[in-house]
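As a warm-up, study this chain.
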Amino acid sequence: MSSIEGMINEIVLATRNPDKVKELTALLGDLGIRIRTLADFPTAPEVEEDGLTCEANAIKKASEIARVTRTPAVADDTGLEVDALGGRPGAFAARYAGEGATYQDNCRKLLKELDGVPMAERTAHFVTVAALAMPGGHCRVTKGTLDGVIAEECTGSQGFGYDPVFFVPGLGRTLAELTAAEKNRVSHRAKAFEALRAVVQHETDVGAECSPTVHQHSQ
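Now compare it with the structure written out below.
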């Protein structure tokens, strides 16, 4: 049993993205609590990610799913901030090439916009905000970041999203060239959920409405 509110023994992942479900299950799977997905709640609504920030989107998804399922819910949202593009695509990373865009569509648009930009100026930052919300409305928010460089072409077949173009200088590879285990040791999402795990394991009461920055873990 988790220590949050002294009674949590299960959470629901507030996403229908199978890639995220797989990754989050790996990151949270050893907490000793039951991890459910939205497949267990087929009538749960699609929550529109219409916030201007990743934090707003994560809080909205977790809070809404916690409310309708009556189960503590975990959600996250990730943005990609590219310095040469003034911080774009930011919180709109998942739909950068338009509504319904594929991972490949987004990567192609990003590479096109950076065409001709030298590697030294292609610095970028992944930012993940994770939220744990209770059915009663209380929640905690955590954050993780990863610094890197946008490569000039897609490389690697692992991961998802912008992983094939996000080069991590300290590793000499893109995220898509890492195994799942390697990625889960260094990624922005792993850092956000490492902080969230600490919340689950050590806090005795969620005890507050969602607030901007409760825990942060950077590279």
